[in-house]
Design a protein that fits this description.
- The chain is an alpha+beta fold.
- It has one domain.
- 26% of the residues lie in helices and 30% in strands.
- The chain has 3 helices and 4 strands.
- A 4-stranded antiparallel β-sheet has the order 1-4-2-3.
Length: 136
Amino acid sequence: MPQQAPLRLVKRWQRYRPRNDYNKVPPDTRGFYVLYDNVQPKAGRVKQADVTYIGISGLGKGGGIRSRLRRHNQRKPGWTHFSFFEVHDNITGDEIRELEALLLQIFQHDSRVGLSNVQTGSRKFRQVRKREQWKA
């Protein structure tokens, strides 16, 4: 009997990798990633890291997180480090999109997070909010 994974969504992850390490991410990795600036180490750990972007990749053919990071490396200034979170093979593209939308909803108005994402929400989240309004 196969051993159950310790996490339901995330298969493996790496945090606070230097920007130029993007080419070490395995090809066609599906999941989500975070770009950081102002990463400050402290005794072998990270004391501070400012989130600048949250993204997803690996939803279709031709690319994964590594290719998205390569593109960001060429076109997106203002980040020095990244983290990536690979999802299990049974996680669908729609579930990855929902996870991204959830993270963007959480951090959208956080003054400590300077997101440069163009997408700041999700139509599906808005539909759920309208449909499930709190009853007073």
